[in-house]
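I hope you will forgive my troubling you with a question about protein structure. The matter concerns a single protein, recorded as an amino acid sequence and a row of backbone structure tokens. Please examine both parts with care and let me know of anything in them that strikes you as inconsistent. Thank you for your consideration; the sequence and its tokens are set out here:
***
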Amino acid sequence: MSSPERDPLAHTVRGVDHAAFPTFDPRATITFYRDVLGFPVVHATCALGWGPGEHPDFIHFFFDIGNGDRLAFFYYFGVEPYRDAEIPDLLHRARHLAIHVDGEADLLEYRRRLDSSDWPCELQVRHETVESIYVTDPNGYLMEVTRPLRTITIEDDIDANLSVDALMEVTGEPGPSLEKFFARKAKLIAERYEGEPELVTFA
């Protein structure tokens, strides 16, 4: 009996198991995430080296960040702190972890915890669909706590797909810019929805 054909692009993942980062200061990291933010420690793995070649001994520890998702850190024994000097600060801070909460009260509670700690909130801002607070953790990683401002709709999905299609086209050509991106996106909207206004409805 033959098995049914499987969609090669079937979406079968179920969220984040864990996101992992190195830490050079496990004491401050544990204080920040467990004792300030209140994320329980749920798992730890210790190893005498790992993989091929020279690999330092390490401990890999995990915090519960809700919904079965975990935030993890590696501490490598004997490895001195460093950062790739060639990475601009802009790109370094672009790599961040965003954790979502349900509403304003939860967001403000996390801001209170941060502002009462050695790691006060650095920025609180409303984006198009979310409100977020930002803080740099003890390892220099940017962390975001965010809450929804409204429900994401089918119009948002349509806009997102138009945006990535325009981005792919513009960055495949010399001299990409935001102006060229907006022009290409407008062109795609005109091409795809001309004569079919019923495909896009706005509340």
